[in-house]
Structure prediction request, 449 residues.
Amino acid sequence: MKLSSLSHLRNLTIHTEIFFQYGEDDTDSDDEIFISNFFRYTCKILKTAPSLEQLTIEVFVDLSHFGSRLESVDLSLLGLLIEPSICFHHLDIYMYTGSPHIPVTHAQMRSSLKEQEGLLKLIEQGVLVLHPEEAAPTMSRVYTLRESKPCIIM
Amino acid sequence: MEWMRKTFIRRTGSNPGKNPKDDVVDDQTVEFRVPYDILDHIFSFLKPHRRDLVRCSKAHPIFSQIVERYQFHHIIIKTGFSDFAFSLTPSDLLKHLTETPRIVNFVTILQIDFDSTSYREIPIEHTLSEIASLMPRFPLLECIILSTRASFPDSLNDLPQSFRKALEDCLRLPTLQEVHFGNISFRLSMLDNHANINYLSLSRPPEFEPEYLETSYPQIKSLAFEGFKYYHRGDCFATWAKRHVTQLQSLKYDLSCHKMISYVLDVCSDTLENLYICITRNPREFKLSSHNSLC
Prediction:
């Protein structure tokens, strides 16, 4: 997929959903592969995009699986986005569980960045803004209801 | 809400001997000093959070009146089983409308959630006729959503005539801007001559009618494709869209459409400003897609 033909593209939002799939030995390797693939794929898309005014990454974390832990979400691979070939003026990251009992907090989001220096510097500069337990703005001006998503059984 | 509750108690003066909650819920003599407009503005932020709005409405009669228009701005009518927590049967909705007729003016989003799982076992014609009789009551609709949990077995054209007529009347409302079709087949000509509809979202390609193939839709500024299946002829639709949706500014798609992505992007290469990509509802699907793309 190449975005280079979209010369007027200004705003790009990429949404993903993290599900926890545990193998028989209770490892979370599938999840790690998934999030790793997501960021690499996103990076590959972004390298083909023109200079963006706004890049938005939205992550829904599904905690419906027994034993799912918000703390195990690793967003440090966002560091891949800080490459000279990827141009954006502003980056917003939205992460939410949709669960009133286990909401994402700012501290958790920051912790999930794993002290990536480049990302922390972007936060200080105001280029990167974290939005805990918020959904990104949608294309729709009127349809904004957020319902709990039905559990997907793997 | 906790902040609001504290502010409310502080401003109205709580009795130290009483449970603070009692001050809020059952004291009809409290002096209410927070201006209505301020509270209204605060509650407006809860619009997407139905559960919180319901809690607020139960906290105090005054809150109940204020949140009413946010609580009912999006109504979901179900035809049977529904995943949506706050969906109503037609008779429940009728009861609400009878008890509080003013809420018809608050409804801007009307969603009909089709229970495709029970469609074959329990006919929904009667339910749809009931829904059809309720639809004309909402004069200020901005958005119509026909949602399905799974693939709906029939075309919209096979549903009761009264329902189709009511839907077509709703599409003619001057306030209507957005139409979201779930996995339900419909004829594209339904959108003809509705210059106000600027956002169309689809979970399967619409039906083409030869006599309407030349119709263009410059009014559609936003298009969303989600949940297409491998057997849907998405490439045909994208080719059609490239010719006839000429002013697209926003596009949303998920990787279920990855086979037609190049067609999709061609649709709007000259005009597109906003792109929304969903990766993905199913990790297995993403892995396949990403591995293919990364190779």
Residues 283-294 of chain B form the longest helix (12 residues). The longest strand of chain B covers residues 109-114. Residues 1-18, 20-29, 283-295 of chain B have pLDDT under 50 and may be disordered. Residues 37-294 of chain B form one domain.
